[in-house]
Hints:
This protein is α/β, with parallel strands linked by helices. The protein has helices at residues 22-34, 51-63, 80-86, 113-123, 145-156, 176-180, 192-202, 208-218, 222-230, 233-244, 252-262, 268-290, 302-309, 314-333, 337-353; strands at residues 40-44, 93-97, 100-101, 106-107, 133-138, 162-168, 183-186. The longest helix is centred in the C-terminal third of the chain and has 23 residues, at 268-290. The chain starts with 21 loop residues before the first helix and ends with a helix.
Amino acid sequence: MTSPGDLAAVSPRVNSELIGQDAAEAALLGAWRSGKIHHAWLIAGQRGIGKATLAYRFARFVLAGGEGESGGLSVRPDHPVVRQVANGAHPGLMVIERAYDEDKKEQRGELRVEEARAIGHFLHMTSAAGAWRVVIIDSADDLNPNAANAILKILEEPPARSLLLLISHAPGRLLPTIRSRCRRLAVPPLAAEDFATVVRRHLGDIGDSDLANLVDLADGSPGRALELWSAGGLDLHREMMGLLQTLPRLDAVALHGVADRLARPGAADSRRLLYDLLTAWLARLIRRMAERRPAAPASDDVTDRLAASSTRLDPWLETWDKIGALVRRADSHNLDPRQVLLNVFLAVEAAARS
């Protein structure tokens, strides 16, 4: 069992186990066996459902020359490729992900053009006869505009025996030209039974109540559930809902207290988690309003109350877009995190009062 503070042990780079994604695995295996595998795959689906684990699993399989166990993608644990990939030392694999900023002591918010251009150099390096070169981009959503254009050029003229695996949590935000040059592989959320299996495997002593809350918040994503657990996400969610409960006029003292705490150095992951929780809540509210579900106006639940009292969807849809733009701009322009957080919640307040 993995402790909450040691979830690095389940990194896709070393994780050989993939649960609940048999259909996606079969699609990749079928493409390989056809002998006409597409040079670029867009592995799309919500965050934390095994997309990166699937990408590494397929990369190991390809780099091992298609030597999978029991007719699948799994490569035997003692194969040299498994050790090399786990150590980040395989010459045929390049992984592009957000770099760590030593000054800020946190990961950067985006992938930069120099990181994308390095892919072209890697793919054109001389390799052993018949050897494949595999690139994993985790995630393509993090590409800034210049980096996205650099990736596009690579996708337009890929070298022979090269394979690019682009992981995306929100493929609709990618350049249409990038999407059109990739074969899309949709990866679904895990079924409830598979979700519980994965979570309990890593958090075996979790109580039924906490597991139920994770099921509700993670929406079929074990990775998100583990992130919530290790980052104190259940407490953060309770704090967020307590703040939202004061709508349509937010408790200013409580809001500034949250902003002060989450603006401190080293709190970037907690801020991103809060934004994820908030946008997920907005999505639930918008769906409930759009479906016109009956809701009790006297309900103590803020989601029920707003769904019953709000008559227009437009302000909430605009708030969704505004928050997304604010968060992306905060990462790319190094904006004051405290002010960004305040603006995010004030946008929600404005929608609730419209």
